Amino acid sequence: MENIMIGFSNVFQLSNLFICIGGLMVGVLFGALPGFSATMAVAVFVPFTYVMEPGPALLLLSALYCGGVYGGSIPAVLVGIPGTPASAPTALEGKAMVRRGKAGQALNLVTIGSCFGGFISSVALLICAPLLAKIAKMVGQPEQMFVAIFGLSVVVMLSQDNLFKGLMVAFVSLLLATFGQDPVEGFPRFTYGLSQLTGGFSVVPVLIGIFSLPEVFKMLEDPFGKMSESGKVGSMKIGRGIIKKNWINAWRSTIMGVIVGIIPAAGPDIAAFLCYNEAKKASKTPEEFGNGSDEGIIAAECGNNAVTGGSLIPLLTLGIPGSAPAAIFLGAMIIHGMRPGPTMFTEHADSVYTMIIGFALINLLMYLVGMLYCKCGSLILLIPKSVLATVIVVLASVGTFATNKNMFDVYVMFVSGVIAYIMIRNEFPIAPIALALLLGTTMEKAMSLTRTMYEGQMYMIFSRPLTLGLALFTVFSFVFPFVKMHLDKKKQQ
């Protein structure tokens, strides 16, 4: 308790409060720009922390991390273009709500969901770190394999309107995920003599292409129009009924997000899709998903923001980063003479508890900063579509190039965008592309290492209790949508 009080006193120093607010504002900006991300924001500002004390340095990185994950949801709602891959499910629902004149409600739901998920994850970081670290110790390659397969079950829910097309898109996208070096043995596959394909298709350029360029092409169908005639997002007021309806949804998604966060190699993008899928399964009105569902927005935002705190749990307790930004946190801590592990909470208690308490405060302050950005962001709706389309293409190109400093990625982005536009015009779902590319490499690597661990005797993985539980849950996740569709048809008859 004494350490917690020290953390409170450090966080509420005026200089540290300014660091939290400033870091949030910059982080949201990084998240809102296509191609930029929370990882990039944290990486860019690590050198600035060299001259800072450990506590304030960790507060700055935490604010950038939280702001970056949240920021991608603002353009996802306003123009249907996710600033980060984790905001892709939000784009599906947010753009539909904008078309229905509920942009203000969508932005408020996004901000509330983000703050709730992030705040609860910081409480989990404070209270449950030792317990959840034990779970992290149990997670090996077999568990990661089933987490990836479970994630792919989301394709079934995302493609209910045309299951064959959705599965076909997911299958082709999984094949694309095999391009490049074998993740275990290292030999090149499907490179066709192109050195740029040695590392495979980078996920970020493809995601920017499939989610941003189709929107640009739609804008150019009416280049002299505007996104909105008023430039106002409308009322941001949310009724008690929506809050009450989403209470269980928010808690379920947040808990799932924290758990996904502590699993190495998982991240907010995977959590967003998983939580979105589970919300659709549990919903009494699944037909609203894809047409502006408040449940879908809350689920995705609570899930992807809960990963922020969850990914720091194995980092602080075991020295194992649960995400890419957490890995950068690890480097920053080592620079400041802090070695994450079991002794972290005793040897560096003041800095650690300052970061944890600051993490909670940052997620509360994010509501105020987020509302400010939402109001300013609404001016996007007044820009003529021809100008907005040009700006989006420029930002998407710059963001894509900045990812790997590679023009080949820019070409991949444009080709992906054209293909996605053709797919949308022919009623093929594009969400399975994102899901398969995000999970394909993880699943293949985990599967190869698992086969090596058990010398080809894959049935042995079911001797692990956690693996068995995940396997049963995965089977249920694949079967449930088909059972539900069958029961719905019977009910209609």
TrEMBL record:
Q: Which Pfam families match?
A: TctA
Residues annotated as transmembrane: 16-46, 58-81, 106-133, 145-177, 197-217, 315-335, 355-374, 386-404, 410-440, 461-483
- Entry keyword Transmembrane helix: yes
InterPro entries per record: DUF112_TM
Domain DUF112: residue ranges = 17-433
Keyword vocabulary terms for this entry: Membrane, Transmembrane, Transmembrane helix
This chain's protein is named: Tripartite tricarboxylate transporter permease
